[in-house]
C-alpha cells in the first residue's frame, strides 16, 4: 500500500508493442516502488525496456496493462503543461536546443509556462545555472561551444528549472571522460542532498552506479528480477548480473570503500 513516502508505484505493468504474430512483450508483471530520497539505479541489458519504463514514468507513453503512479497521480496525467514542475528529465545526450544559448535553454519550460515576467525567468534560470556549477559568463554561450560535461550541466539546470521533487537521468555520465564523470556524479550527489530529490537513473556504468545509487533495480526477463544495494544485487544468481558485475571494473567498483560523505555524521 502506498504511503506519503512513495514517490513512484508501478504495479502489474505490461508493455507490448505490435499485434498478432508481430507482438513483442517488453515488460510483463513488472512491479517497482520508489521511495522519497532514493537514488535508484535501473540496470538491465540492452533492449530490456529501461528507456520505455522512464517514458511511462514521464507519462509520455502508456503501458498496455497495469498502473504507473507518480507523486500520487497516474503518470498519464503528468504530460503537458506543468509536467516539469513534477518530474525533471536529463536526457542521455543533453538534448539542448542548438539555436538557443545556455540561459535560454535552461529557462525554456518556465518561459513557456508564461506565468512569470521575462526578467524573473532570467533570474531563476541564472540561479539554476549556478546551482549546476556553471558560471555567469557561460549564460550566453551556444550549445555547440560547450564541452560534454558542460552540456550535461546545462541539461541538469534545465531539468531543475521548476524545482521538481523527482529527477530522471538517462545515462547521466555517458560520453564523459573519467574526470568529468566523477565531477558530475559529485554534483548530482550534492544536489540530491541539498534539494531533497528522489532520483531514478538508467546507467550501464558501474562507477556511476557505485558512486551514486542508494538502491539498484535489475530489469531482466521482462520485469524487475531483484533490487537492493549494489552489493546485495551482485549476489543474485542471474546470467545478466554475473556478466554485469564481472571483470576488472566490477571488482574494482565492488572493492571501493563506502563513501564517507554518505555515512551518518557524528554530532
Ligand atoms: N515505440 C516503439 N515501438 C516498438 N518497439 C519499441 C518502441 N519503443 C521501444 N521499442 C522496443 O522496446 C525494447 C526496449 O527498448 P528500450 O529503448 O526501452 O531498451 P533499453 O533497455 O533502454 O535499451 P538500451 O540499454 O540499449 O538503451 C526494444 O526492443 C525497442 O526496440
Automatic annotation (TrEMBL):
Coiled coil spans: none
Gene3D superfamilies: P-loop containing nucleotide triphosphate hydrolases
GO molecular function: ATP binding
Keywords: ATP-binding, Cell membrane, Membrane, Nucleotide-binding, Transport
Domain named ABC transporter: residues: 8-246
SUPFAM superfamilies membership: P-loop containing nucleoside triphosphate hydrolases
InterPro entries for the chain: AAA+_ATPase, ABC_transporter-like_ATP-bd, ABC_transporter-like_CS, P-loop_NTPase
Entry keyword ATP-binding: yes
UniProt protein name: ATP-binding cassette domain-containing protein
Organism of derivation: Diaphorobacter limosus
